[in-house]
Design goal:
The structure holds two protein chains of two kinds. By secondary structure, chain A is an alpha/beta fold. Chain A folds into two domains: 2-26 and 260-284; 32-248, 3-Layer(aba) Sandwich (Rossmann fold). Helix content of chain A is 50%, strand content 12%. Chain A is built from twelve helices and six strands. Chain A has a six-stranded parallel sheet with strand order 3-2-1-4-5-6, sandwiched between helices. In chain A, helix 8 (184-195) links the parallel strand 4 (173-178) and strand 5 (199-203). The two termini of chain A are 18 Å apart. Chain B is mostly helical. Chain B has a domain at 204-287. Chain B is 62% helix and 6% strand. Chain B has helices at 3-24, 66-83, 91-125, 127-133, 149-159, 171-201, 216-235, 244-287, and strands at 34-39, 50-54, 63-64, 208-209, 213-214. In chain B, the strands form two sheets. Chain B has a three-stranded antiparallel sheet with strand order 2-1-3. A two-stranded antiparallel ribbon of chain B has the order 4-5. In chain B, helix 2 crosses helix 3 and helix 3 (91-125) packs across helix 4. The longest helix of chain B has 44 residues, at 244-287. The radius of gyration of chain B is 30 Å and the shape is extended. Classes of the chains: A alpha/beta, B mainly alpha. At the A-B interface, helix 2, helix 4, helix 6, helix 8 and helix 10 of A face helix 3, helix 6 and helix 8 of B.
């Protein structure tokens, strides 16, 4: 048995992981979520802002990490729409434009179509701008140096929403959904920290451990990957009962595969260590 | 024909027959994208242009869109081709990988040209020409800004690196880039990552609520933070031999580091499972129509 386990083909492990993840998706079961303090603080900030506050959301990710960050983008936009906040969208990723368009289409144009939110008045898509953190450093002082026009080419002075916004310091909150460089760290370094602008972020799981030390002084809170999105959806559901429907909560739906996948990884770690020590014990005997 | 090849062929044939049956012989089929026609400016009396947007099949106006459905099938088969690497390297994986790399490179090059060369440089150097050729919305009164000759010249100097002679010319713009970036980064890094992070560790070890009651867990958290920071710093302090008190503290630092690495590993697992779950949901929901987690298809489909 020990020899069999020692030489087990790793493809059986891949198959086990596939079943651990696909099974809960097929079963469509969900687990209850409770927002942690890091997520709650972001939710409370957006909730406490007066209606019509201006929030900038930077989509610093691309389709490759959309599975991880898409649910939190949806949750942020949904909350902003529910509170009737004004929204500015941008991306510092070359491949980020499609995810901005998708989020707008999914939430503003479809889910909140009844609100009839107008581009230019209720939200502005600034699009993509080359320059990474230099763009942040520039728009912290003057939005028009990097974004004289929105993504459709309309002058920012001709749009009711941006007419009176000079720079990032005029915003009530900046949210960054980030997958790497440039991302939350650059927003902290070039905007939030030097100008004391309220800032919160959502990040991929890989980047989350490095972000926690910046809370709460430089970041209000953090949504760590799909778990953070699920917690945010739970906070939304607490406050807005229609959002208790699992059909609307992509993050919560994705936590069941997480649970079983993690359980499998833990079991494999225990099994791997057991095999190692059993083998060592057998050789020393 | 060896055993492995027989297994593969059987799997392919069974999979293909299953797909064929589901796509052609079930009343609803599978892997179709629905769209509906919408006016671009619904409030305008003169602008009657329309566009097709994605719609749920339950929408009465929805019709099947063949090009988008083909795109969905390409995405699904591409996903399966990438997953096939888990079994072993094979031509399908190689094809999918090459397509992905090629599409990404082409996309980045096109975006770089339009956002960098056109939108930042040429628009400022030759606005009239750009208005006529590429940017019709450009302000009619925009005048050429000759300051942008400087980045143009620096850019050309940078490209000189590719020339057989005079590669040293490229060092000048490179020096400017490195110097500027270092200066920009240094100040902000010192502020956000050094001073502010030190300031965040200057915290009360005994946390009081309303100035009277002791917040036990808050105090434990702050003490843990301070011990963690100091012990990890001690571990990386190599000017003193790690013996005695320094050795003990640095060993505590190792424990903190191990916990950190463990948390990073767990987060990485979470990230990878999230991506896997997203792809599997795409295959089962959007392509095969085996599940309908968002309720966008009619009941029974």
């Amino acid at each position: 048995m020990l020899d069999f386990l020692k030489t087990l083909d790793r493809r059986w492990i891949f198959l086990a992981m596939l079943m651990a993840v696909a099974g809960p998706i097929l079963a469509q079961k969900t687990f209850p979520e409770r927002p942690t303090i890091f997520v709650r603080s972001v939710f409370d900030k957006i909730e406490s802002l007066p209606e019509g506050s201006t929030i900038m959301i930077s989509f610093d990710y691309d389709p490759a990490t959309n599975g991880e960050l898409g649910p939190m983008a949806t949750a942020f936009l949904r909350h902003c729409c529910l509170k009737r906040h004004k929204m500015l969208f941008l991306t510092l990723f070359e491949t980020g434009k499609p995810v901005v368009d998708q989020a707008i289409r999914r939430v503003i144009d479809t889910e909140f179509a009844a609100l009839d939110l107008k581009p230019g008045e209720d939200y502005v898509n600034l699009g993509y701008k080359q320059g990474r953190e230099v763009v942040i450093a520039l728009i912290a002082l003057n939005l028009r140096t990097s974004f004289p026009r929105d993504h459709e080419g309309t002058d920012l002075d001709d749009l009711p929403l941006t007419r009176n916004i000079t720079n990032l310091q005029d915003l009530d909150l900046i949210l960054d959904i980030s997958t790497g460089y440039p991302g939350w760290k650059e927003w902290v370094q070039y905007a939030a920290s030097p100008y004391d602008i309220p800032f919160a972020a959502g990040t991929t799981a890989v980047g989350a451990p490095q972000a926690y030390p910046y809370i709460p002084e430089q970041m209000l809170g953090l949504l760590a990957a799909v778990k953070g999105a699920a917690e945010y959806e739970a906070a939304l559901a607490e406050k807005y009962p229609p959002y208790r429907d699992p059909k609307r909560n992509e993050g919560i739906r994705r936590m069941a595969p997480q649970f079983w996948g993690h359980l499998l990884v833990i079991a494999l770690i225990v099994l791997g260590n057991g095999i190692h020590f059993a083998d060592r014990w057998r050789r020393n005997r | 024909m060896n055993r492995e090849r027989i297994v593969w062929m059987t799997l392919f044939v069974l999979g293909g027959l299953g797909l064929l049956y589901r796509a052609a012989f079930t009343p609803h089929g599978m892997g179709k994208v629905y769209v509906k026609e919408e006016r671009i400016a619904p409030d305008s009396d003169s602008d009657l242009r329309t566009m097709f947007v994605e719609a749920d099949p339950i929408d009465p106006q929805a019709v099947v869109d063949l090009p988008r459905s083909a795109g969905l099938w390409v995405a699904a088969l591409g996903t399966l081709a990438i997953f096939s690497f888990l079994y072993r390297d094979n031509p399908f994986y190689k094809l999918a990988e090459s397509v992905f790399v090629g599409v990404t490179a082409g996309y980045l090059m096109a975006v770089g040209f339009w956002e960098g060369i056109v939108d930042k440089l040429l628009v400022n150097l030759a606005p009239g020409l750009m208005r006529a050729w590429a940017v019709p919305d450009l302000d009619a009164d925009q005048q050429p800004n000759l300051v942008y000759l400087v980045p143009l010249v620096l850019g050309l100097m940078l490209l000189w690196r590719l020339a057989p002679r005079g590669a040293w010319i490229a060092r000048w713009p490179l020096a400017l880039v490195v110097g500027t970036f270092a200066g920009l980064k240094l100040v902000n890094f010192l502020d956000a990552d050094f001073v502010s992070q030190i300031r965040s560790t200057i915290i009360p070890l005994v946390v009081l609520i309303d100035g009277r009651r002791v917040d036990f867990w808050g105090s434990i958290r702050n003490i843990g933070l301070l011990v963690g920071v100091l012990s990890c710093l001690t571990y990386f302090y190599f000017s003193v031999e790690h013996k005695g008190l320094v050795g003990t503290v640095s060993r505590i630092g190792i424990w903190f580091l191990m916990v950190t690495f463990g948390a990073s590993f767990a987060f990485t697992v979470m990230g990878r499972i999230a991506l896997l779950a997203a792809r599997i949901e795409f295959l089962l929901n959007d392509w095969l129509w085996l599940i309908d987690p968002t309720g966008k298809r009619p009941p029974g489909w």
